[in-house]
């Protein structure tokens, strides 16, 4: 009979997030945007695509169609042409055109500020809504992407079999609300730049976290 994994408690989880903050003090959203509309579109485009890839296509896209009104009237084939270097670009082009139309027709061209309204838009799920709520509107939220889920399980913040919503719930339960948004970015940076999904020496990841924790204790 295998021994059950002991999960981190709230205090231990918060210390982990603070330690990662020592390693990545400037962790923040890396999708290029200048307003809530651009952020919403960029996050929709980022599904199964790197932020770097998205940032290569959005400057021209936003220069050509800077408002929901202009994007909803855009020729679909032209949107597709501007997105063709990223994954699933055909479906994403349809989503962002439909999303722009609904922003205009249902929300007077403004990005809504509630989870329910955001998730009612084409191409927008809970993760995307959380990113927009957090980054665009400074509302406490934890968006669980692949990095956040993987690191949360790697450090036993949540059960290994937890689904995405259960990971989010565990993080919200164990981390103070005023750290939710920054915790999301710190976990992403740690997963992206220190503890990737590919095979690596995880002992080095643990060592860096412990060193960061020690520096916190010294302070």
3D structure, described in words:
- The chain has 2 domains: 10-28 and 142-218, Helix-hairpin-Helix base-excision DNA repair enzymes (C-terminal) (Endonuclease Iii, domain 2); 36-136, Hypothetical protein, domain 2 (Endonuclease III, domain 1), CATH 1.10.340.
- The protein contains 12 helices and no strands.
- It has helices at 10-23, 36-45, 51-64, 68-72, 76-83, 89-107, 115-119, 126-136, 146-154, 164-174, 180-193, 202-218.
- The longest helix has 19 residues, at 89-107.
- The radius of gyration is 19 Å and the shape is elongated.
The percentage of residues in β strands lies in under 5%
- The CATH superfamily of the largest domain turns out to be Hypothetical protein, domain 2
Just give the CATH class of the largest domain.
Mainly Alpha
Counting DSSP E segments of at least 2 residues, the number of strands comes to: 0
Give the SSE map:
Blueprint: H1 10-23, H2 36-45, H3 51-64, H4 68-72, H5 76-83, H6 89-107, H7 115-119, H8 126-136, H9 146-154, H10 164-174, H11 180-193, H12 202-218
Helix pairs in contact: 1-11, 1-12, 2-8, 5-6, 9-11
Features:
63% helix; mainly alpha; 12 helices; Endonuclease III, domain 1; 2 domains; Endonuclease Iii, domain 2; single chain; 219 residues
In short:
The chain has 219 residues and is mostly helical.
